Amino acid sequence: MMSMGYTQEVTKGIYMIAIPQIYEHPNTAHYLILGDKVALVEAAFVYSLPYLEKALSEVGVRPEDIDYIIATHYHIDHTGAIGALLEKAKKARVVIHLQNHKLLTDPVRLVRGSTMAFGLAAFKLYGKPGEIKPVSIDRMMKIRGGEELDLGKGKVLKLIYTPGHDTDHVSIYERSTKTLFPSEAVSVYNSRELRAYLPPASGGPYDIPRAKESIKELMRLDVNTICLPHFGVVEDVQPREFLQKSLEYIDYWLDFILGMLKQGYNFYNVLNAMNQKLLEMAGYRSLDQLHEYFKKFWFMYLPKITLMGYFNYIFQYPGGLLYSYNPGPVSSALKSEMGGV
Questions:
Q1: pLDDT of amino acid 2
Q2: What backbone torsions phi and psi does residue 142 show, to the nearest 5 degrees?
Q3: Does pTM surpass 0.70?
């Protein structure tokens, strides 16, 4: 990819924006898609909005040039800056699934959801309710999935409903370049800094069956490039292999968690073991080898949120494992690692 400061060209007419967000490190990648019309995928942190505007200017785009701001789902790390950006992006429509669109009108509810996962640190990370601007419903383009946005110059975006991470989750496929923006329908993965597959379960019940079906839906596409929000372009794994591994690791981590629960371990025992396993997968011996962002944010919060999602699926989700739990052998993925438990 060719870099121009905060902006990197992914392929013709598509740019990744990587700006300082947490501990001066990017957390949520934005993507800019240029045709006759302009689409911005995600608008994450209200504090980093000046950086986002500078990044746009690197490719000659002003906020007022934006036609669509696409929110792959309502979570604050994907939508927190949308309301503020709309004050300058006067003609932009916010493309969002109709399932949870009303949450963008109420920043208090958005922040409340983030405090469940991050505690009071959420205010520092994402902003307080008064700093996060509401989005008016009349600025929204509510979708169900299956729609297409024709940006002109051959750029057509297919919007694909991919629930699992949350009920309103949407992925994006650009046909002419065969570029997929799966957001958190697939694993959290970083080709340059942390090559470990972590399913992006949210803190609520992780809908594992739907998450797996969503990945299978994406595997039907002809994909040349995968662009992740967390984080970046997948560079070291072929697209098909990455999607397949994202699918397989949903069950891998389920087996890992069940294996420890069957041995009597509690949530925090499992979390510590998950963190160690993720480090090993990525080829590290300790957190000290990583950027401060990974030590003080990524490993502090993301595995915990994923584990919360798995626990809620196991013990609360209708049809989850608790409803058909059989304390027999762990499935094959972990037999060798867990000593044949």
A1: 52
A2: -85, 130
A3: yes
Structural domain includes residue 309: no
Across 312-340, average pLDDT: 53
Quote the radius of gyration of the chain (alpha carbons, Å).
Answer: 20
- What number of other Cβ atoms are within 10 A of residue 275's Cβ? 18
Look at residues 167, 291, 155, 160 and name the one whose alpha carbon lies nearest to residue 231: 291
Examine residue 254 and state whether it is found in any structural domain, yes or no: no
Strand partners, 171: 160
Report which of 193, 210, 165, 212 is spatially closest to residue 291, judged by C-alpha positions: 193
Structure tokens at 8: 């990197």
Residue-number span of the structural domain to which 125 is assigned: 2-247
Residue 76 neighbours by CB distance under 10 Å: 27
Q: Please state which of the ranges 80-89, 225-234, 312-321 shows the lowest mean pLDDT.
A: 312-321
The total number of structural domains in the chain stands at 1
What token pair was written down for 109?
Answer: 């509810």
**Cα torsion through 240, 245, 251, 255, rounded to 10:** 160
CATH number at residue 7: 3.60.15.10
> How would you list the strands of the sheet with 155-161, edge to edge?
148-152, 155-161, 170-174, 179-181, 225-228, 232-233
Residue 72: inside a domain, yes or no?
A: yes
User: pLDDT digit string (tens) for 257-266?
Assistant: 999 999 999 9
Give residues with Cβ within 8 angstroms of 264, minimum separation 6: none
Is the residue at 321 inside a domain?
Answer: no
pLDDT tens string 203-235:
677 899 999 999 999 999 999 999 999 999 999
**7 and 15 in contact (C-beta within 8 Å)?**
yes
Between CA 101 and CA 272 the distance in angstroms is: 35
